[in-house]
């Protein structure tokens, strides 16, 4: 095997496929990068047996061949090289790498031991604008659960129907829903799947991402195809919770809140809430103010008044401020958010409307 490739092109390729390397595997080959050189093309593959990534770039290939090298070491080497031609030679047991005045010899692994890239025949597919999808995933993926005992809650429900994309995530304490209009090729039926939250976020931040991304599913996989990259993840099986039954048709109190003011006030008030992460919201419709307050037996207490527009009854509710911050950060590109309340012991619902409509439902805590 012998080929030459530019450092910048190689560095980007390695940053794409490194997301698929296993970090704590007992099989050394899973922490490696499979490299296949053939006429004019280099193909890189990684897998941790849950996700598999394949990425291709152009290169000057003099002798075709395959090899597997340590992904971490190769990535660290390439990062430090100048932006010049990088030459690889060898591959059976050792590969020599040279660039400018630098040279390295890396031990290699047998490519025969590397798992074959998964084959797939897609049952359903849809092509979506990646920038919009990335913005939507950013708004919901922090709400996915980290509890491995309920894998369905670690996923994001993707539903595309009648030119509307909708993403839904919940960890059972809170629920995030966002939707946006998009022109899609006419679907015979709704496109729906559950994508692991971290996978969805990671794939959309890859440097090789193109303007549009094709998403498809098989019985056990969700597949992303864009440019010269194919990213395959294991699909989450099961029935996503019926989130619609949690959304009330109306509310007793509606509060319009300026997001920058609210964010700053919440930061100040929550400084006290070290051991108890709850912040109390008292809504006064007559004074058109919302009082934020927090207390701690050891530290003391804090309060702040925030001017708001209120429709409906006066109301009090206590919410976990960490979760409220996640909501505020997700809606930070808007100026205003609405808080809708039914009662002290029913969930609070934050809503914002723009290019991406956003809803965030949060269970109350004891006051």
Automatic annotation (TrEMBL):
<dbReference type="GO" id="GO:0006271">
    <property type="term" value="P:DNA strand elongation involved in DNA replication"/>
</dbReference>
<keyword id="KW-0239">DNA-directed DNA polymerase</keyword>
<dbReference type="GO" id="GO:0005737">
    <property type="term" value="C:cytoplasm"/>
</dbReference>
<dbReference type="GO" id="GO:0008408">
    <property type="term" value="F:3'-5' exonuclease activity"/>
</dbReference>
<dbReference type="Pfam" id="PF00712">
    <property type="entry name" value="DNA_pol3_beta"/>
</dbReference>
<feature type="domain" description="DNA polymerase III beta sliding clamp C-terminal">
    <location>
        <begin position="244"/>
        <end position="366"/>
    </location>
</feature>
<dbReference type="InterPro" id="IPR022635">
    <property type="entry name" value="DNA_polIII_beta_C"/>
</dbReference>
<dbReference type="GO" id="GO:0003677">
    <property type="term" value="F:DNA binding"/>
</dbReference>
<comment type="subunit">
    <text>Forms a ring-shaped head-to-tail homodimer around DNA.</text>
</comment>
<keyword id="KW-0238">DNA-binding</keyword>
<dbReference type="InterPro" id="IPR022637">
    <property type="entry name" value="DNA_polIII_beta_cen"/>
</dbReference>
<keyword id="KW-0235">DNA replication</keyword>
<comment type="similarity">
    <text>Belongs to the beta sliding clamp family.</text>
</comment>
<dbReference type="InterPro" id="IPR046938">
    <property type="entry name" value="DNA_clamp_sf"/>
</dbReference>
<dbReference type="Pfam" id="PF02767">
    <property type="entry name" value="DNA_pol3_beta_2"/>
</dbReference>
<dbReference type="InterPro" id="IPR001001">
    <property type="entry name" value="DNA_polIII_beta"/>
</dbReference>
<comment type="function">
    <text>Confers DNA tethering and processivity to DNA polymerases and other proteins. Acts as a clamp, forming a ring around DNA (a reaction catalyzed by the clamp-loading complex) which diffuses in an ATP-independent manner freely and bidirectionally along dsDNA. Initially characterized for its ability to contact the catalytic subunit of DNA polymerase III (Pol III), a complex, multichain enzyme responsible for most of the replicative synthesis in bacteria; Pol III exhibits 3'-5' exonuclease proofreading activity.</text>
</comment>
<dbReference type="GO" id="GO:0009360">
    <property type="term" value="C:DNA polymerase III complex"/>
</dbReference>
<dbReference type="InterPro" id="IPR022634">
    <property type="entry name" value="DNA_polIII_beta_N"/>
</dbReference>
<protein>
    <recommendedName>
        <fullName>Beta sliding clamp</fullName>
    </recommendedName>
</protein>
<keyword id="KW-0808">Transferase</keyword>
<keyword id="KW-0548">Nucleotidyltransferase</keyword>
<feature type="domain" description="DNA polymerase III beta sliding clamp N-terminal">
    <location>
        <begin position="1"/>
        <end position="117"/>
    </location>
</feature>
<dbReference type="GO" id="GO:0003887">
    <property type="term" value="F:DNA-directed DNA polymerase activity"/>
</dbReference>
<feature type="domain" description="DNA polymerase III beta sliding clamp central">
    <location>
        <begin position="127"/>
        <end position="242"/>
    </location>
</feature>
<keyword id="KW-0963">Cytoplasm</keyword>
<dbReference type="Pfam" id="PF02768">
    <property type="entry name" value="DNA_pol3_beta_3"/>
</dbReference>
């Amino acid at each position: 095997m012998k080929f030459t490739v530019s450092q910048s092109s190689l560095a980007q390729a390695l940053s794409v496929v490194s997301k698929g390397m296993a970090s704590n595997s007992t099989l050394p080959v899973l922490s490696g990068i499979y490299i296949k050189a053939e006429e004019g093309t280099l193909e890189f593959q990684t897998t941790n047996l849950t996700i598999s990534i394949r990425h291709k770039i152009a290169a000057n290939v003099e002798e075709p061949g395959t090899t597997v090298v340590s992904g971490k070491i190769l990535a660290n080497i390439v990062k430090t090289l100048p932006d010049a031609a990088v030459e690889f030679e060898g591959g059976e047991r050792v590969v020599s790498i040279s660039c400018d005045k630098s040279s390295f010899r890396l031990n290699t692994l047998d490519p025969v031991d590397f798992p074959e890239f998964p084959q797939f025949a897609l049952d359903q597919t849809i092509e979506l604008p990646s920038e919009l999808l990335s913005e939507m995933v950013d708004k919901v993926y922090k709400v996915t659960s980290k509890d491995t005992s309920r894998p369905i809650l670690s996923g994001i429900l993707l539903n595309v129907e009648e030119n509307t994309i909708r993403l839904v995530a919940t960890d059972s304490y809170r629920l995030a829903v966002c939707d946006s209009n998009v022109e899609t090729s006419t679907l015979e039926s709704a496109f729906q799947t559950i994508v692991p939250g971290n996978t969805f976020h990671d794939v959309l931040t890859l440097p090789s991402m193109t303007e549009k991304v094709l998403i498809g599913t098989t019985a056990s996989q969700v597949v992303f195809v864009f440019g010269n990259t194919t990213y395959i993840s294991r699909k989450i099986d099961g029935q996503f919770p019926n989130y619609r039954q949690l959304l009330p048709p109306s509310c007793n109190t509606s509060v319009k809140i300026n997001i920058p003011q609210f964010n700053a006030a919440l930061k100040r008030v929550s400084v006290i809430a070290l051991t108890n992460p709850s912040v109390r919201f008292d809504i006064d419709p007559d004074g058109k103010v919302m009082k934020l307050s927090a207390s701690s037996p050891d530290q003391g207490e804090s309060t702040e008044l925030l001017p708001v527009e209120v429709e409906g009854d006066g109301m009090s509710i206590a919410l976990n401020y960490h979760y409220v911050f996640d909501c505020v950060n997700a809606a930070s590109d808007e100026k205003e958010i609405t808080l809708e309340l039914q009662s002290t012991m029913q969930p609070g619902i934050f809503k914002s409307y723009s290019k991406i409509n956003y809803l965030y439902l949060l269970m109350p805590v004891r006051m």
